[in-house]
Amino acid sequence: MDYGAMDIDQVGPRVIIRESFPNRADFVLEHVDLAFANSLRRTMLAEVPTMAIDLVEVDENTSVLADEFIAHRLGLIPLNSKQIEDVLYTRDCDCDQYCENCSITLTMHAKCTGDEIMKVYARDLVVAEPRPNEWVGNPVITDEAGLGPVICKLRKGQAVRMKCIAKKGIAKEHAKWAPTSAIGFEYDPNNKLRHLDYWYEVDPIKEWPVDDRNASWESEGGPQQDDETFDYNAVPSRFFFDLESIGNLEPDAVVQQGIKVMQQKLAAVLQELAGDENRNGNAGGDGFGVQEPDGMQGGDYGVDQGYTTPYVNPGATSQWGGGATPYGATPYGQSGWNQ
Amino acid sequence: MGTPGTSIRYRTDNKTYRLQTGQTPIVRPPLYNEYGLDNFPNGMNAVVAVISYTGYDMDDAMILNKSAHERGFAHGTIYKTKVIRLDENERTNKARSKSARAINKLFGFAPDSFVSAATRSKLDSDGLPHIGAKVTEGDPLCASHNVTYDPAKTSSVAYINNDGVTQLHKYKDSEVAYVEEVRLLGAESGAEPCQSLSIKLRIPRSPVIGDKFSSRHGQKGVCSQKWPAIDMPFSESGIIPDIIINPHAFPSRMTIGMFVESLAGKAGALHGLAQDSSPWRFTEQDTAGDYFGEQLRLAGYNHHGNEPMYSGITGREFAADIYQGVVFYQRLRHMVNDKFQVRTTGPVTQLTGQPIKGRAKGGGIRVGEMERDALLAHGCAFLLQDRLMGCSDYRREWVCKGCGSFLSTQPTVWGGALGGRRGKGTGVVRCRRCARKLADVIEEGSEVGIGEEWEDGSGEKWVGGEDTTIVAIPGVLRYLDVELSAMGVRMRFNVGP
Ligand SMILES: [Zn+2]
Ligand SMILES: [Zn+2]
Q1: Which family does it belong to (chain B) (predicted)?
Q2: Residue A281 pLDDT greater than 70, yes or no
Q3: Given pLDDT bands bounded at 50, 70 and 90, which one contains residue B417?
Q4: CB 3.0–4.6 Å: which of A14, A102, A226, B277 could bond A93 by disulfide?
Q5: What is the CATH number of domain B341-392?
């Protein structure tokens, strides 16, 4: 691969969308390093905000399923999250519990009156108005009959009446906020980098299936030839993504949102690294910058004296803070354990 | 855990385990269908990767995908039934044939009694819990009050409460539960008022670290960590395993069946088939590996069931391809929530002052000889002292430095000469063994200074034995001294300095 020529032609990452469906996007990400590509994958999997039911107030539940079980099922129903920027995180909102700016209320009220078993579907969730925008909070329904997933089944006389509060969140917190069901990820389909050492019985080329589309996409094409020299300095730079959306966000929106989240996180890192002169008196002095708030507690991160040996401790106080054991005076009537 | 029956709703077992999110196994024998076992699901099809990843799958431990858990993987419930009897402590003879006049307690709040708002919010006006209510340790399950039978009044209120006191029957377990059902157990004759109550409680048990799982091949393991899905390894198609187990679980146990199930399950999932797991269907020439391997090959997978996988943390492809398939996993009923034991201080035995045994009673776990040796080998003498003495039978005991005895020290009392508090303890402890009787000393003609003599509890006056001090010892040491002295053996302690 001629990296030198490419650097001149191409600066920065390049995305080639190979195929696009309502709930799938197949694209190739080029001229980025592995860490970047994987970061994007991880962000899209776990940090793209979506809507999901987070609180359920059970008014009536005479179905055979327990309250918490139905609540769990409700949480997993995908809700439309288009233009979710219009919705605030509840923790950032001024309200006490939840409000129109940070949540969407859906109500489920169903009772079986007939002799046949009645199914309650996602379409039976009624979205309350007003809400931040016209899409957000609608249950995602993709089947032809327009029913959506089954929530529960009711027998004659049984009823469910629940108030569901959907909130904005990310899949890092709970999988119900995941925008994708899976993200296919591959690089170097011809194994030219030899990251993978195929296990085989007779012939790895015969025994191992190759993703033809990805393999032939690589301009060099074909498996390693015997006369080809191995470039041990080569690094992966082309990544094949196959993203499948759950339906709450369009696949391209998932990618865009993922990039946005990553940008925000990187911006936060840069800001921390640059240091704030006003906040951190001797910024750059210790070389660590501002500390993570939930990191190690107290003390100067950079100027730790290290472990001081408790033996031959000239002071009267021992390493355990004062000369006393937890039981009052030290045993054996001495003033310090090492005197 | 599984589905113990179709009549769970109507049963009142003391304890029942139930799996909430059961599935039908992909790999199964024909009899599975014949017996209709789909009506009683007892496990879940898990995507299992056999890989040593992060070390948290060492030694039969397994890593669970946190997202899989959040989607409901292996969620379970325990149903417990508590029966509350009002007539429990009374004459248990007469075989429960109580007459109307023998009843002296009724369920419900005492009329006009004071009931706190907290209790009101937990119990309904009839003194019984709300269905679906959450109960935590110490919460009331129901209320009752004392009554006396009034034979003169034959109307509806034949029982009169006189003290206006409401008794609460509390929930004593430490786990959060939900009230599933309340049953009033009426009298046999139907004439007397209700005297017992059966409350069915539901305890949700989502899988946590320390819970036990198993495939159907006896490959049991304990969940040691729930990794976020993004940190788990993934295949090229983006599949993230639900469970990671360690390859070392296989060579010595030779559970080839699990490999075959993994292969068959994967092929079945890819093609939408329920696979037949009958034994002896294959021969040395026509092997299961080839049969299911061919199915995998047709689905575009390696026929051995291996797949290239990537590290979820770095995104780099692993050097080895990973055996990944679909295996039916069961949740076993051994859960940490029923087993964990922890204690710093707590109840002790009378005799030795050492902690009692038993998890239920809040006892300790013994630091035995081997544990002691391990601590010694690590040089943790201070920790050892804390385990063996500080958290056990730590005692401060008076000892005589002169004669080295615990047993000869005794408290002194105020004598008549020193004021009005005669007979009260002075707080000073002297050794009686090293002391001499005041009378003998005077008879000898020796000088006795002011305040040198002391008095014991029986009025005898003594001189000397001042060389006493307090030492910290394990309580059993003194007990040993007592036992030995009973056999005529004296222990002598050299107390320094
Ligand atoms: Zn709000
Ligand atoms: Zn003595």
Answers
A1: Belongs to the RNA polymerase beta chain family.
A2: no
A3: low
A4: A102
A5: 3.90.1800.10
pTM: predicted TM-score of the whole model, two decimal places:
0.80
Strand, helix or coil for residue A160: strand
**A110/A119 Cα distance (integer angstroms):** 9
Does A67 sit within 8 Å of B317, measured CB to CB? no
B72-97 pLDDT per residue, tens: 999 999 999 999 988 776 555 454 55
* Min distance A49 CA to chain B CA atoms (Å): 15
Smallest Cβ–Cβ distance between B320 and the set A64, A197, A331 belongs to: A197
Do B316 and A195 count as a contact with CB atoms less than 8 A apart? yes
Pick from A61, A198, A210, A319 the residue to mutate for testing the B interface (most B CBs within 10 Å): A198
Question: Who among A35, A184, A197 is closest to B237 (CB)?
Answer: A184
Given the residues B57, B59, B60, B163, the one annotated as active site: B60
Lowest mean pLDDT among A276-290, B335-349, B448-462: A276-290
Residue B428 C-alpha, separation from nearest chain A C-alpha, in angstroms = 17
Is B390 in CB contact (< 8 Å) with chain A? yes
pLDDT greater at residue A262 or residue A312: A262
Provide the residues around ligand 2 (an ion) whose CB is within 5 A: B 400, 402-403, 431, 433-434
CATH of span A8-47+181-249: 3.30.1360.10
Q: Within an 8 Å CB–CB cutoff, is residue A152 touching chain B?
A: no
Instruction: Report yes or no: B317 at the A interface, CB cutoff 8 Å.
Output: yes
Amino acid of residue A230:
F
Q: Is A213 on the interface with B (CB under 8 A)?
A: no
A50-178, CATH topology level = RNA Polymerase Alpha Subunit; Chain A, domain 2 (2.170.120)
Q: To the nearest whole angstrom, how far is the Cα of A290 from the nearest Cα of chain B?
A: 25
Q: How far is A80 from chain B (nearest CA, A)?
A: 19
User: Can you identify the CATH homologous superfamily of domain B395-486?
Assistant: RNA polymerase alpha subunit dimerisation domain (3.90.1800.10)
- Helices A251-274 and A34-46 cross at an angle (nearest 10°) of 110
Q: Which ligand is nearest to the CA of B406?
A: 2
pLDDT at A3 over 50: no
Q: Tell me if the domain spanning B79-205 has CATH number 2.40.50.140.
A: no
As a CATH number, domain B23-73+209-331 is 2.40.270.10
Active site annotation includes B60: yes
B319 closest CB neighbour out of A69, A72, A197: A197
- Quick check: B317 and B310 in contact, CB under 8 A? yes
Nearest CB to B71 within list A76, A244, A326: A76
- How many helices (H) and strands (E) chain B has is answered by 9, 28
Report CA-CA distances (Å) from B61 to A271, B88, B212, B225: 41, 46, 9, 9
Tokens matching residue B391:
């958290």
Q: B218-223 — which CB contacts under 8 Å span 24+ positions? A: B218/B253, B218/B255, B219/B245, B219/B249, B219/B253, B219/B255, B219/B258, B220/B60, B220/B332, B221/B60, B221/B61, B221/B62, B221/B245, B221/B249, B222/B60, B222/B61, B222/B62, B223/B61, B223/B62, B223/B63, B223/B64
Nearest residue to B242 via CA among B328, B301, B183, B177:
B328
